[in-house]
Amino acid sequence: MSSLKHKVIAVTGAASGIGRAIARECAARGARLAIADVQQQPLKELAKELEAQGTAVTVTILDVSNSDSVDDWINGTVEYYGHLDGAANIAGIEGDSKVFCTIAELGNPAWDKVMGVNLNGVFYCLRAQLRVMKKGGSIVNAASIAGLRGRAGISAYSVSKHGVIGLTRCAAAEAGSQGVRVNAVAP
């Protein structure tokens, strides 16, 4: 197990699921964390758990679809810790019942909500992180198997995750020469 001692890692979607697991794993490896999510109570519970184990952690209630809020979070993280070494952009939604339908039935509000969180949110986080990350940094974005192939009935989700893969490839090409790695996972 590699050490993340003294590394500062920012994690979105940290209140549940994959984001929560990533935050716990980074803490177990010695990282200092900036965790964020829209789910206030589970995020604060995670922070208490990690702090009880000796992890330095900051908590931000964050809607990743708000560019200014994302910029404030990342800038605040750097102001608090002095730098940012890594990030896991995990926040995402599948949508509600209004999203699980054919393209012909899909309404603008459902489409906009999924794109706002899953694609725009990753873009806002990635942009803010790349502005402050130095050589040796690493960013991981959450895509999905649905981002590798289309599937009937989940077009908004699938398209948003296809976008994350494309955005990640562009960021990797741009940031690689500066010594920052950008990758995506497709669970």
From TrEMBL:
* Alphabetical list of InterPro entries matching this protein: NAD(P)-bd_dom_sf (IPR036291), Sc_DH/Rdtase_CS (IPR020904), SDR_fam (IPR002347)
For this UniProt entry, the molecular function terms from Gene Ontology, in alphabetical order, are: oxidoreductase activity
Determine the domain of life of the protein's source.
Answer: Eukaryota
Q: Which CDD domains match?
A: SDR_c
Going by the UniProt record, its keywords in alphabetical order are: NADP, Oxidoreductase
One matching Pfam family, short form?
adh_short
Matching SUPFAM superfamilies? NAD(P)-binding Rossmann-fold domains (SSF51735)
Tell me which family the UniProt entry assigns to this protein.
Belongs to the short-chain dehydrogenases/reductases (SDR) family.
Q: What is this protein called?
A: Levodione
* Organism, scientific name: Cyphellophora attinorum
